[in-house]
Amino acid sequence: MLSAARAWGATALTAAALMSTGAAPALAASGSGPASASASATRTSALYGRTDPTYDGVWRQSLSLMALRTQGVTPADSAVGWLLQQQCADGGWPSYNADPAKPCNATTEDTNASSVALQALASLGGHTDAVSKGANWFKTIQNKDGGWSYNPGGASDANSTALAVSALTAAGVDVKSVAKDGKTALSGLSAFQLGCTGTPAASRGAFAYQPDKSGKLAANDLASAQAALAAGQGRLPVSATAPVTAATGSATTCPDSATLAADYLSSRLASGGNHLTQSLAGASPTPDYNATAWAVLSLAHAGRNDAAAAAVNWLSQNAQPWIQGDHGMPNAGSLATLILAAQATGKDATAFGTTNLVAQLEATGPAPKSTPATTAAPSSAPASASATRAAAAAQSSSGSGFSPWWIVGVCLVAGIGIGLYLSYARGKRS
């Protein structure tokens, strides 16, 4: 016979099970794009996030592992194992391999995903072989201009080059010594930067994604945000550093690449209301949450703490649409990037505006192996890690509040609880 306490406990466990399996979000998202059978399958796997992993599986897994580790969370062994199994025989990673038993296609390996995967394993520790293989892979696919492309063999771009430099730095490699045809990794990166000569003041220090057909460089904020970290030989995760005063040089001297890039990002954020924007053809500018978060990481590494803090505060108040993604399901990559930005600036990721980023990210993937012990949780806080995960799953099941499917689920759970209690009461009376 169930006791009253166990009857209520069973009801709570049922609620947690409904939320942790992602059943309600999957139903709510049915017929709305990528959130289909493949997305549902990933919810029960070792992968963070519920959306189709085809293009970002390795990317979001790597960022998630790093982000949770910065919060004292030890991710599930299955989550780390998933990332290790995605590594190709040559040391690189694809964007996502649905069947790791099959060999990778070397021409479609993803330098961006490989970079964050290597940085994640380096930050977790204990994966020397995988990290070393990844670093060697980056060396073998370096282009003759010193840079890297998104897929091996393509034209170099600033973002991919920057991420490669950060990956090599994380692996303990001296990037100044990594060269092809006399062009080092750092010189390959600096080739995309707009310098002090012949550049409008507002664009000095910016990085272009790639030169146009005429060889001209145009400032690109995401390229600048990611390249600034690499130019300062930074890596993920970024730790808060001592503040540094901007040094813009004199009339006859130009600051070094990292300083110039930090100057550009600080200026752009200040003029844009502490965030960066993106403009698509025929559309009004919209906030660029991703570029803003990367700018925070780069500026925190550079010691530009005031600019980084102002931008991360803006994100804490405005980034909810980015967290929810296009289909109303929590975006693991966005959550992880914001956690990393919060960590870099000393901001509490569990109270990011009105959002507990850590609980929400945990709720998108396998239960962690361990979490930090809580000694004096406030009375309004969830009583356990499971309750926190369940609450986060409920919070993130839709863009705003509960969907109709969640109402059905809640009613169902309530009915089960009432039934269990009545059963208990009948047993007591007999």
From TrEMBL:
<dbReference type="InterPro" id="IPR032696">
    <property type="entry name" value="SQ_cyclase_C"/>
</dbReference>
<feature type="domain" description="Squalene cyclase C-terminal">
    <location>
        <begin position="47"/>
        <end position="149"/>
    </location>
</feature>
<dbReference type="InterPro" id="IPR008930">
    <property type="entry name" value="Terpenoid_cyclase/PrenylTrfase"/>
</dbReference>
<keyword id="KW-0472">Membrane</keyword>
<keyword id="KW-0812">Transmembrane</keyword>
<keyword id="KW-1133">Transmembrane helix</keyword>
<keyword id="KW-0732">Signal</keyword>
<feature type="transmembrane region" description="Helical">
    <location>
        <begin position="405"/>
        <end position="424"/>
    </location>
</feature>
<feature type="signal peptide">
    <location>
        <begin position="1"/>
        <end position="28"/>
    </location>
</feature>
<protein>
    <submittedName>
        <fullName>Prenyltransferase/squalene oxidase repeat-containing protein</fullName>
    </submittedName>
</protein>
<dbReference type="Pfam" id="PF13243">
    <property type="entry name" value="SQHop_cyclase_C"/>
</dbReference>
<keyword id="KW-0479">Metal-binding</keyword>
